[in-house]
Specification:
four-stranded antiparallel beta sheet; globular; Immunoglobulin-like; 321 residues; disordered N terminus; 1 helix; mainly beta; 6% helix
């Protein structure tokens, strides 16, 4: 399943393939979900998929590496046992004693359940439709509709999304831009494939949805892209795009012409959390068409240009007006 985008001036294509990191993906279309944590700090996630019950054990990871120095050092990730202990000749799940208390941590988007472990750390399960097709297309494959269940474990602050909207190229197009940071450091990977999929488990995709757009009513997937460079920066312009060009997944019956620009009343970005930290969400209003005769529009555009330059800090990408 490929999710692709073009990121403003850099025109980078991005894909979903190989994104098992972040708040770690553990199941798809799960139901009857329960979370427990024992006094040793092992979590047990009990869930059902198509009537089959799984008792998954997870341990060995918390938070994320703050300053990755080399792609040869892997980002933190859970050790998992889908057998509930059977593969280690133990029936751990049958004798698992939950010591997790009521959750009192920060508000989480897409939350299924969360709790506070005996050592004060937090565990959470989030679920959202990660694999929706881009450019507002309705899902035509079963896997595109799936709800991904993701497990996280952390202490302290979550990753942070700073997102802004403005107009670009003389006011002809709308844009969202900003930065994705964790403990003040930009979230970024060390490389992507030809179509933009992260090639290491530091890279993180950001998924952009648009609300009440030319695609139709409600929330629909616009595109996905990575944060990049030392600032953890991203920028995305709302242009008309041809789903047959650039590696977009599309049904064979899709006309070979450009889709409308996905400008909407609101925008939403869901970002996969670094390491095993929770996924985070930003949501904000869209913009009206730019009016160069309106002092408020001119002032906003000037302020946003200055903001983008401040985020760039000399970084080469997203250098446009």
């Amino acid at each position: 399943m490929r999710l692709v985008t073009l990121v403003c001036a850099s025109v980078v294509a991005l894909a979903l393939a190989g994104t098992a990191g972040a708040s770690q993906l553990i199941a798809r279309n799960a139901s009857h979900i329960k979370l427990a944590v024992n006094k040793k700090g092992t979590a047990m996630v009990t869930y059902s998929v198509r009537g089959r019950v799984t008792h998954l054990l997870a341990w060995g990871a918390v938070n994320a590496r703050r300053r990755p120095a080399t792609p040869r050092i892997r980002q933190v990730e859970f050790k998992v046992d889908y057998s509930g202990g059977w593969k280690h000749r133990r029936m751990t799940w049958k004798h698992f004693k939950n010591r997790c208390r009521a959750y009192d941590g920060p508000e989480l988007a897409w939350l299924v359940t969360a709790c506070k472990a005996p050592n004060g750390s937090y565990w959470a399960l989030q679920s959202w439709q990660t694999a929706l097709p881009n450019l507002g297309m309705a899902p035509w494959l079963r896997q595109q509709k799936t709800w991904w269940l993701r497990l996280s474990h952390w202490t302290g602050s979550l990753a942070k999304l700073d997102v802004y909207t403005d107009w670009i190229y003389g006011g002809r197009f709308q844009e969202v831009f900003g930065r994705y940071t964790y403990n003040g450091q930009g979230v970024r990977g060390f490389g992507t494939t030809r179509v933009g999929a992260p090639t290491d488990n530091y890279g993180r995709l950001l998924f952009l949805d648009t609300f009440n757009s030319p695609y139709g009513n409600g929330w629909l997937r616009e595109n996905s892209f990575v944060s990049h460079g030392p600032p953890g920066m991203f920028c995305y312009g709302f242009y008309r795009r041809n789903p047959w060009v650039g590696g977009y997944a599309h049904p064979r019956s899709m006309p070979k012409r450009k889709r409308p620009a996905g400008v909407g009343e609101q925008y939403r970005i869901t970002a996969a959390g670094p390491g095993v930290t929770p996924d985070v969400v930003w949501q904000g209003p869209g913009l009206h068409p730019y009016n160069r005769g309106n002092p408020s529009d001119v002032a906003l555009e000037s302020a946003m240009n200055a903001e983008r330059e401040a985020i760039r800090g000399g970084y080469a990408k997203c250098a446009h007006d």
